Amino acid sequence: MRRLLLILAASCCVAGSATAQGQRLSAGKTAYLADYDLYRTILEKAHAGLYKYHTKKQVDSVFNHYRRRIDASITLLDYYAYLSSILSYTGSLHDDVSLPENYLDQLKAPAVYFPYPLKWVGGQLLVNIDGQEIPAGAAIVAIDGEPIKNILPRLYKYYTTDGHNISGKLTGIANSFPLYYRYEFGPRRSFKVSYLPYGARQVQHISLTPATYAEYTGLRKQRHSLPLDTLADRRYSFQLIDRLSTAILTVNTFSLGGPQSEKHAAYKRFLRECFTTLQSKGVKHLVVDIRRNGGGSDPNDLLTFSYLARHPFKENREAYTLFQQVPFKQYYYTDDSTEVADLEANFREEHNQLRGGKYYQDPAFNKIWQPDSLAFQGKVYLLISPAVASAASLFASMVKSEGYATVIGEESMGGYYGHTGHNKVAYQLPLTRIDFSFSVVDLLQYVQPTPGIRFGDGIIPDTIVFPSQKDFLANEDNVLQYTLDLISHQP
């Protein structure tokens, strides 16, 4: 550690700022190595999930591999890719690494980006804009002669998911494809695109003019899938379908405030009203749709599950962090001067059970919940997607674990057995000015082992249903329609 601090001290006076054109630090290899060693040390000291899905030997091997690749010729983007590869490999969707803001602004300015918004649908990367040279719904087959099936895996490192999940990576990468493609393959003066229009048998070819990133984001605001995408603007909703004795409860976020907030109180009242209605009307089927839910705050996930649970439950089997005092405070990155002190006070209170070098959660903060008196006793159908993460995947894992619900859709990016979440910390590397953040509480969720779900998987549906090209073009919700058709054939 003393050697690392000496390197930092020697380098800080010679490191220059990186620009989009001159992408190397003036301090060169020395600065990159110093920041790299600091990055590694911080993760080893503070990231409780660093060895969750891989052994220490495997993780050390990855760290050593990328350190050996650092030389005087690498660019800031190369370096960023190395850091991203490591963070993605550890397997926590709450982790992130970011380029310096001024550098990213310069990177986005030139017209070098793939121009069209795209969407991952049914195993294909589809054009998600109307009225352009390539029609909406066409599948991208290759770019500049490289098959899309070879391109996408090279972008996985830029999007973190839990464990070894890929479905969430593909969804997230598609949503920001031009940026990630620029990171990996560099600027382009043109794009030679091979594509297959919907219903066609013959692959077609075209040369596209690149766009600025601002032009791309303008098109994205007009994307073809907007009518379905904007359904997520409503935090939650409830609908009765009397002819099917069915209700649809949609919860698009658990970011509904903490236990003392008015937003949480309003959601609590909403749930009470919904389940009172279900009971008074004798509704037989309940569809719970969380496909657009990326998580949020406690106790909204647990409160919602209490209306579906049939047995007592709690949030996790165990939860621990590696510290009570935040390490490397001098590199902590925040606009809130009280953040570190508040985090440390929280950990001294909640994570105060020191065993084997880990600070485990005090059982008083992991209470046992009882099913609500209005808990639904009919047939439950849970709709999930690759976007389901964090608190939403914890909720979905509990529903799946109890075994009474039919889970429909696609695998979630959030883990079934656990995740590294809750309190988040952020650091800035002093020479490259790269920021990185990660959550620091590792949890094993309160779920039962389930056949067909490996450690590191997301929630796996009982029935896999995903949109087709035809559904995408028509903006039809075939997952919900499949579920309602299933209900209609129930006795």
Give a written overview of the molecule.
This protein is an alpha+beta fold and 491 residues long. Helix content is 35%, strand content 19%. The chain has helices at residues 2-11, 29-46, 56-68, 76-90, 101-108, 148-155, 167-175, 177-185, 213-220, 226-229, 262-281, 300-306, 339-350, 391-402, 469-474, 478-488; strands spanning 96-98, 118-121, 124-127, 139-143, 146-147, 191-196, 204-208, 236-241, 246-251, 285-289, 316-321, 353-355, 358-360, 379-384, 406-409, 418-428, 435-445, 463-464. Helix 1 (2-11) packs across helix 2 (29-46) and helix 12 runs parallel beside helix 14 (391-402). The radius of gyration is 24 Å and the shape is globular.
Give the averaged pLDDT, no decimals.
93
Q: Report low-confidence residues grouped into runs of 5 or more.
A: 1-22
- Shape descriptor reads globular
Q: How many distinct folded domains?
A: 3
What count of helical segments does DSSP give?
Answer: 16
Q: Give helix % range.
A: 25-40%
Question: Which CATH C-level class of the largest domain is it?
Answer: Alpha Beta
* CATH architecture assignment name of the largest domain: Alpha-Beta Complex
- Tell me the structural class: alpha+beta
Distance between the terminal alpha carbons, to the nearest Å?
A: 68 Å
What summary fits the major beta sheet?
6 strands, antiparallel
The CATH superfamily of the largest domain bears the name: 2-enoyl-CoA Hydratase, Chain A, domain 1
Total beta strands: 18
CA-based gyration radius: 24 Å
Beta-strand content:
15-25%
CATH topology call of the largest domain: 2-enoyl-CoA Hydratase, Chain A, domain 1
